[in-house]
Amino acid sequence: xxxxxxxxxxxxxxxxxxxxxxxxxxxxxxxxxxxxxxxxxxxxxxxxxxxxxxxxxxxxxxxxxxxxxxxxxxxxxxxxxxxxxxxxxxxxxxxxxxxxxxxxxxxxxxxxxxxxxxxxxxxxxxxxxxxxxxxxxxxxxxxxxxxxxxxxxxxxxxxxxxxxxxxxxxxxxxxxxxxxxxxxxxxxxxxxxxxxxxxxxxxxxxxxxxxxxxxxxxxxxxxxxxxxxxxxxxxxxxxxxxxxxxxxxxxxxxxxxxxxxxxxxxxxxxxxxxxxxxxxxxxxxxxxxxxxxxxxxxxxxxxxxxxxxxxxxxxxxxxxxxxxxxxxxxxxxxxxxxxxxxxxxxxxxxxxxxxxxxxxxxxxxxxxxxxxxxxxxxxxxxxxxxxxxxxxxxxxxxxxxxxxxxxxxxxxxxxxxxxxx
Length: 421
Fold this sequence. Notes:
six-stranded parallel beta sheet; three-stranded antiparallel beta sheet; disordered C terminus
């Protein structure tokens, strides 16, 4: 006798990706039961769940409060705006012209890998915008993937924030995504003034900071009240190194959604300009005596790399400067041992090297922090689930209201002071 569908992990994750959001799933028949099965699956630990029991309970409380207060007209009028900028692989990608339809994340990817190879970009050309390699294919980012940002958005909307999510094509040049975001913010100049807060995660932190830089000090300080960076890849991450080298098990998003990566997918990922821009490059921020300058040598990459993209992307994060916005910026770090160096093993596979370093499991602290920016650490939090972490969410609300975060959310003074010095 076969198991009920909600007990089958692949079926559940297809259902969750098809729903579009956690709140949308709650409104569907058996939607709550599907989420409960994911939250309570005894074969998973919390790092591998799309939603934990604690997070689900909170989501149910938010939904109950929404319904309870629905008759109170004043709650329909928001006072502040929030733009959430997702991280790497945090936006859906869909082929709007060709035959592929939704690619990332299509529920079929959970089973067979689907049309992932259609994500390949055309060869890099200086001064030419990134575009898709396949003829007749045009991929756009219609919105965020399910789960990762739903809980934070629902939590803020309940508290009278109007929330938008700035989905972007994480494969492409971060600079282009930042220009779009800057234009979106600049368009507010002709409207009635309202507080605006940016909350950016991982790679999205570079999109947000570069947008602030493009706006310039005068416009940015006039139009944006707070910039909150969750696990920012400020100076890169070794996850990008492993992704380009074909070590796909390092891709937390793919693992968590059960996506089956097709063979030789590194050839596709080596066309992603956004990954080259995430390579660590500064020896002064490295651990274990590691010198990341070797990553800038095309011959270093045994699985291959695009020389022109490497030349453009390596060190790109060093060009992003938002020092003028430091007093309006807050960084939130996770708390997991993190890879701080990489080397090829005897089998020719790029692997972690040396001791693990403080970080969030994806971005080392030294690659996340910015001199002069107040920085906090959340005990036990990991990189991917930072936007869903309840301690992070509560502290983000405090930051947006210019309040001191809860005592359980300690400012990371020691590391920040050492970094500043």
